[in-house]
Design a protein that fits this description.
Low-confidence stretches: none
Strand order of the largest sheet: 1-2-6-3-7-17
Number of domains: 2
Bound molecules: ligand BES, manganese (II) ion
Oligomer: single chain
Strand content: 15-25%
Helix content: 25-40%
Amino acid sequence: MTTSLSAALAFARESQPRYLVELIEFVSIASVSTDPQAKPEIQRAAQWVASQLRSIGMNNVQILPTAGHPVVYGENLKAGPKKPVVLIYGHYDVQPAEPLELWHSPAFAPQQRGENLYGRGASDMKGQVMVTLKAVEALLQAGDLPVNLKWLIEGEEEIGSPHLEKFIMDNKELLACDFAINPDSGMVALDMPTITYGLRGLAYFELRVSGPAHDLHSGMFGGSVHNPAQALCELIAGMHDREGRITLPGFYDRVRTLDQAERRELARLPINDSFYLEQTGAPALYGEANYSTVERVGGRPTLEVNGLLSGFTGEGTKTVLPAHAMAKISMRLVPDQDPYEVERQLRRYLEEHAPGTIRWELLLHSASPASISNIQLPAVTALAQALEDTWGKPPIYKREGGSVPVVAQMQSILGIESVITGFGLPDDNLHAPNEKLHLPTYFKGIEVFIRYLDLLGS
Ligand code: BES
Ligand code: MN
């Protein structure tokens, strides 16, 4: 081990108490990207990240506007032309914290209980952003940076990165690099370091159904018109068959088949049906026939109802025939599906199946394709080495069911690969109440990135 590597690791260990304090500061900012009321908090989070970048020794730090929330940029290119240029990606936005009453401590007043820090965004992904910031800080405290670094920390990932594609196109020069590090992922289990090589895409819709001009007395008018809530449920019910397959014509045409070798690899992952039963708490698993749960999550597309709204849902009863019904529907996509093509398929399904007794309207909220990353690259081998040096065992390679739109955007616009890892755990409650980050894993993650950047420079 070089003296500067051991000095950086020692600095990071001594700094753990401060690394926790700073993480708490970051997680305290309610930067909910989907909430128009949260604009000031979004600004505050962007400024917080910019000041972190400056304080750890980055240059040319800027908060760059987009048509949505700003991107934070920074760089340190002092390692010289012989060293790689590595772009570190992150997002400072978070999902909404609702339902608030289910949190045991307030979502934006992070609380440490045992080995965990509870707060919205602690794991997804403010903790992961901090891991990279603090690793670079430690390396710079101990000597020169082993590689050239650029940072792109965005504020719209949790709403599908709708303005990032244009930002990347407009800033190709600024963002030019050899590859990206993307820590917006997690581990399959505690003590199982993980490299993610596939992410699903996402197409997110809102389907609005209406019938009568206004709510009706369900006794005076029940039997006279088609209830929009019922019609919406009928439409949704028709989107899957009895085998759990999606019925939209053409939906599977572009789905890349999982080859036997990959199915064998996925079968070796230490996640089985009892893992999913335990994590979800559901009475039984469900999904497309003829695929294992791991395959369905990582390598097959899905269609999900994210939310339903109609009629009277308060306490007690109200006899009403609602005028409107609405569903939020999303599809997780796999290579080589096109989010705009599945939009056309859903529209065609609605045109063919929606009865003349109702009106409907379909909105597309976000669209991003899936990505598969090359794991043969030296940058991936070096990460595997850094993970093994830290955990004492080699990483597992996994296809993730979640989505991170920037990965495909960087592949197509910048022509670069992303190396994807992260230190979240399956029980971190991402997007749910009581999100948390496992602090010992957070500190280990910092060590991983110190070792990884050091390896990349040699
Ligand atoms: N970090 C997650 C994606 C993720 C989750 C990766 C778990 C690996 C393990 C990311 O921030 C996220 O939640 N993305 C959204 C994206 C969407 C709004 C386009 C998602 O997947 O729902
Ligand atoms: Mn994330």
